[in-house]
Amino acid sequence: MELSWSxxxxxxxxxxxxxxxxxxxxxxPVQSVIARRQQGIExxxxxxxxxxxxxxxxxxxxxxxxxxxRGEREQARESLDIELNAEREKRQAALQRExxxxxxxxxxxxxxxxxxxxxxxxLQALEQxxxxxxxxxxxxxxxxxxxxxxxxxxxxxxDLDDVRLQQLRAQLSERDMVAEVASAFPLAAELRQxxxxxxxxxxxREVQCxxxxxPELLAGLRIGIGGWELDANLRDELHGFAHLARELAGA
Amino acid sequence: xxxxxxxxxxxxxxxxxxxxxTVVTTWGIIAAIWLGCWLLSRRLQTRPGAAQTLAEGxxxxxxxxIRAVAPDHVQMLLPFIASLWIFLVIANLCxxxxxxxxxxxxxxxxxxxxxxxxxxxxxFGIRSQGLRRYLHHYLTPTPILLPFHLISEVxxxxxxxxxxxxxxxxxxxxxxxxxxxxxxxxxxPILMLHIIEALVQAYIFGMLALIYVAGGLQSQMLxxxxxxxxxxxxxxx
Lengths: 251, 237
What we know:
The complex is a heterodimer.
Chain A: H1 5-140, H2 143-158, H3 162-171, E1 178-183, H4 189-203, E2 208-213, E3 220-225, E4 228-233, H5 234-250
Parallel strand pairs in A: 1-2
Antiparallel strand pairs in A: 1-3, 3-4
Chain B: E1 10-14, E2 17-20, H1 21-42, H2 50-69, H3 74-93, H4 107-129, H5 131-136, H6 146-182, H7 188-236
Antiparallel strand pairs in B: 1-2
């Protein structure tokens, strides 16, 4: 082991040459590439930062717009709720009114139906009563009943008030004073005389009575003088009863 | 392997210069490095391939190591320090190739590198702060320490050369002895140790060189900082 000066010097030169070679072919190119890449990275970072800032601006802008839209939406929803509530209340009121009207109409219809039903029942009762009375009176009709009805007619003529008598006398003043007295059975002479006297007394003039028999009267009398007619017989009374029942049914 | 091959021998002569196997091996290493760098420089792209990634990784690692020691002089120190590391790693690992001896097993080569480190310390120191101000740091903190500074310069340079030479030569000698005694496959663990030792020695040599050079630069920086602090305190008063 000894120091070789030739090797020593040549190694120094060799190393210096190696430093030059590495600097020329390794350090500079590699550093240049690294610098270019670093520059590119910085440019991309700057561009990315710029894009990020613009994205943030856009995000803030869109967030602001979104908030505005949300506010407008809430406002529109509130106004819509108000309109819906008003419309609902309006429709509810209209429905309540319509329901009240329908209820009233139904009640009226029900009342009418009840009235109709009641009227029918009353009419039916009247008709049945009339029919029952007619049958009863047909079976009960006879000279005795006619006598009693004649008495009742005489009593009724005697009980006429003055106003009615005056009207009767005025109506029959110019007419032919022939009275037609109809009866279901032959009248007794006493009753005939009494009727003639009573008519003459009431009308204060001579009245000629014409007596006829009409079996359809069932029992009682009918006195006709001109347009005036005085009934006291079962047929007319039953007809009047039935007529009253029909009038009630027609009403 | 003959015993005579353990030490570098002269292959031929060029005039007064004796060309040894160490020099030839160094030329081969330089040629290989040049070829690799030339091929690499032709294919450099912004999107690196595998080789470029490796090269950039080596470059970045060396830069970071220098920046950790001398952050203000990275570009100035990078060529020298990085060249030391690259050359020493390759030169130390050359011993693994059969028939080729590591140049660093030759004291002449390690001494040449140590002398280059010694000179570079002064070169970078004078270059950064001037001759007078650089020499002034030998007198700090007191002129009494000047002999110790000078002795330190010599001894650390000798230590650099001998440490690398001793380690690499001993590795090769141990591998040779085990090969002679144990057979063909027995030195494989020693060869693995050779790889680790080669990397460690290259790192130690380059790091020490970096520390020596940075020490010369930072002494000036420390003085400037001290002066700035004194000026600042004077203005406050």
